[in-house]
Amino acid sequence: KKTPIYIANYVMMDYGTGAIMAVPAHDERDFEFATKYDIEIIPVIRPEDDSIDINNLKEAYTGSGLMMNSGEFDGLEVQEGQEKIVDWMDSKGIGNKTINYRLRDWLISRQRYWGTPIPIIECPDCGYVPVPDSELPVVLPKDVEFTGEGESPLTTSES
Fold it and tell me: What mean pLDDT, rounded, does the chain reach?
């Protein structure tokens, strides 16, 4: 099936170069774009239950399910279908599997658990100072709670 090409500036610049295959039925930004410009939305994942009318979406369906509108891959669970599509593309010489790591900023990306990348102590007399070399490595507590609220998990630790 011929596919129209749309040029838009909503794709993140650091995503990479080249074309992006939009799947508006299953991606929130693509759904918004397709809805705004009255572009056909073809679902390719059907939920395993009937809780959502996949042919009359009010928002992108981002859950798991079985592949549909995908030719010979119809009925496959999504993960299995993706693997078989990659194998099919590889066998035809039109694509292959690759892994891209998108670590944008090493220092910021590492700040998930302990805060700053260099262990710092708050000293009541001299302010913030680096942990002395003799006390490295700092062993982090295991009794933390990951809330996803933007605050360091260390603030939830009693130890």
Answer: 83
> Do 82 and 76 meet the contact criterion of CB atoms below 8 Å apart?
no
**Closest alpha carbon to 84 in 37, 76, 92:** 76
- Nearest by Cα to 65 from 52, 56, 77: 77
Cis bond upstream, residue 137 (ω within 30): yes
φ and ψ of 47, to 5 deg? -60, 150
Residue with tokens 């549909």: 68
8 A C-beta contact, residue 68 and residue 51:
no
On the question of pLDDT at 66 being above 90, the answer is yes
Question: What confidence tens digit (pLDDT) does each residue in 10-33 have?
Answer: 656 556 555 677 889 999 988 998
The pLDDT, as a whole number, for residue 115 is 57
> Taking the C-alpha atoms of 24, 25, 27 and 33 in order, what is their torsion angle to the nearest 10 degrees?
30
Neighbours of 60 (CB within 10 A): 20
Q: Is 127 helix (H, G, I), strand (E, B) or coil?
A: strand
Could you tell me the pLDDT band of residue 117, with boundaries at 50, 70 and 90? low
Largest CA distance in the chain: 71
Instruction: Quickly tell me which residue has 């009359």 as its tokens.
Output: 56
